Every structure is written in structure tokens, then in C-alpha cells.
Amino acid sequence: MSETTQPLGRRERKKAATRQALADAALRLFLERGYDQVSIKDIAEAADVSTTTLFKHFPGKEALVFDADSDHEAALVAAVRDRPDGRSVPAALRDHILRCHLGTATDPAFARFRQLVMSTPALRDYGHRMWMRHETALAQAIATDTGAPEDDPACAALAHFALEALVLARGQDDPRAAVDAAFDLLEGGWQPPARRTARASGQDAD
Predict the structure, then answer these.
(1) CA distances (Å), origin 105, targets 97, 108, 109
(2) Phi/psi at 133 (nearest 5 deg)?
(3) Per its UniProt record, what SUPFAM superfamilies does this chain match (predicted)?
């Protein structure tokens, strides 16, 4: 028998709607006025709630921008756990990051959001901390999948550098190429540029 998802009750639906209204209002105001020019009170008034209600849903201004962050950890773990047979962990994480985190890079709305984050130090730092906090869960998923101890340092390193690959890519002219370069390193190990060039020339000659 397949599992069925129970519909949300009225109270849960109302809470979810309020949370979404707050996140939407915050992002709209931040884009219109700039992050530093918008107060918590401005956001609460735009969503027609009290500041007390806002703080019941979000701990502060930064969290309003990263409302979907709670979904990312489950998706990262699933990318490892549910990958196809024969697909390596680095390859599965590469696919996930390219598809889910860089696939919207050409969307104008996403471009405005990304510009807001990257041009606001408080948001940029908060976003990095929020993203990297998934490291422990991802490392544990990798360890479980490979049969390694839960605190295995190699699994922790793979999780850390896989997450950092996206951070690196966001500052590059070609983010996809940056992600690929990082995961090529995770998959195949370091090769100096001269050795990579020699190998590529040898392949061309074949």
C-alpha cells in the first residue's frame, strides 16, 4: 500500500499562508527599497500582521529571504540516498546542484534575488551559514550510504567541499564550469594544469 500525505489542517494552512505572505512581502520590499532600508515593522505592516507574529515565524530579517532553506537539506540527502545504481556520490551531488541550484540562473526573478543577496553583506554571510549548516546531515548520509562510520572524516570532507562548490561557483563568470571543475576534482583527485593539458592532448591524438 502506498503512503498518503495527510492534508494540512486549517490552523496549519493559516500558519503556512502567513509565513508565505511575510516572505513574499519581505522580498518585494527588499528588492524595491534595498535590504537596509526596510525594517521588520515595514514587513509586518505589508503582510498585515504584527511584529510579534512575524517573530513567531522568522528569527530575523535575514531568515525572511531564505524561507525555502529548510527544504534543501532533505533534497541533498535524497540526492545521495536515491541516486541510480552505479552513480557515484560526487556525480549525484553534482547533478543535484547543477539542476536545482544553477538551473534557474537565467531566470530574471532569480537574477534579481541573487543580486540582492550578493550585494548585501548580511544576506551573503547568512546565506553561506545557512547553506553550510547542511554539512553534518549530508556527511551522515554519505557515511550511511557507504557503510563508513558516522564521523568518518573523508565523508565529512566530501560533504563540505561539495557544498562549497556552489559557493565558489556563485562568484565566477561561468558558474556551471566552476561547479564542474570542483566536482571533477572531488571525483578524480587533483591534477596540476600541465598534467591535465597533457592528458587532454593525448586524448585528442587517440
Answers:
(1) 12, 8, 9
(2) -70, -10
(3) Homeodomain-like (SSF46689)
Q: State which amino acid sits at residue 62.
A: E
pLDDT digits (tens, 9 = 90+) for 99-113: 887 765 556 777 788
How many whole angstroms separate alpha carbon 70 and alpha carbon 13? 17
Does residue 84 share a domain with residue 58? Answer: no
0.90 cut: is pTM over it?
no
Q: Which of 65, 82, 98 is the last residue of a domain?
A: 65
Pick out the chain residues at pLDDT < 70.
1-8, 67-70, 103-107, 191-206
Cβ–Cβ < 8 Å for 185, 168: no
The residue range of the domain holding 38 is: 10-65
CA distance 122 to 1: 48
Report residue 29 CA to chain centroid gap.
23
d(CA 61, CA 30): 10
Which candidate, 125, 124, 151, places its Cα nearest to that of 139?
151
Distance CA 131, CA 69 (A): 8
- Tell me, yes or no, whether 105 lies in a domain: yes
Same-domain check for residues 49 and 100? no
192 CB-contact burial (10 Å; exposed 0-12 / middle 13-18 / buried 19+): exposed
